[in-house]
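Most newcomers find our protein records easier to grasp once they have seen one. To make this concrete, we reproduce a full record directly below:

…
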Amino acid sequence: MPQKVLVIGGAGAFGRRLVHGLLATTDLDAVVGGRDLARAQAAADEAWQGNYPGRSTAVAINTGTATASQLRATGASIVVDAAGPFQCQGYRLAEQSIEAGLHYIDLADSREFVSGFHSLDERARQAGVTALTGASSTPALSNAVLDCLTAGWLAVDDVEITISPGNRAPRGLAVIKSILSYSGKPVRVWDNGAWRHRPGWGLPVRKEIRGLGRRWLSLCETPDLDVVPQRFGVRRSVTFKAGLELPLMHLGLFVATIPVRLGLLRSLEPFADAFRRVADLLDGWGTDRGAMVVAVSGVGSDGARATATWTLLAEAGDGPYIPTLPALAAVRALAFGNLNRPGASVCAGVLNLDAIEREFIPHRITTHVEFRSPAA
């Protein structure tokens, strides 16, 4: 009997794509989990559209109330949390998955959630299961890229990570809440060799991105702001910026952060529905082309100054698959016995770049790598 993977949030923007990837590229069956059973069932039916009959089912389940017995009853061997937003979420689902003896993976992009995940390590080791957090664009993919680019380097000085989705990409409410949760608030960054605070969605800059042209970018709070300085011993700076393709939306959000920066509002998160409605009004503008860039500089294996840049370009609306592909690679590795590391950890240094990039194959996703020596 094929193994089953429970995808909680499987009816959401990212969860649907992960379920599709499971059915289309593996022999694994999918269980779509969600608070609304009718919505989960509709997503399960849509996932196979007659191509994978009997391979997707649905179950009503809530991340905040799920129990180990409920999770076991789904028949799954792996639980994936694609629900979010993780900024206001505890570890209940991971804890119950571990208690049930099931492997656990999430797509968490919350810095606080990811940084505290190690507290589950001993429990997961005793249960003999693997629990991974951050199996998404950040920190799993970004760190896999950096591991590849800096292999053999003597030192890493500066890292800049950039994500710029196309405006026509689907925007789930959880993603909008995630961005608004830190917009205008102080974000702790490694800058010029020291920890400093900079405003979330601040420091706007317009940069040239290979294959896309010039786009606006601003500071984001992500797990990489902690993970990258620690893993790579970065001597000078680490920044993570993202942008909205339409200048009106990008700069409009920047202006909206001013009341938070001045202390007049605690957060923009309560206005997530309003922001989503505005974004939906502009949905037909812009493009469906997005990119991710990882740029690093330091000292190469020969002792000379070196820089490297990895650029991912997603065409024809395939960008929203990218956050799900590290999780898909992790599920594949666990299900087929290629990943055996009991315990709870951040998904950084767990998957190599080749394993994640193999998941790009069905999609219109290309990458380009450029190494340079400033002295050359």
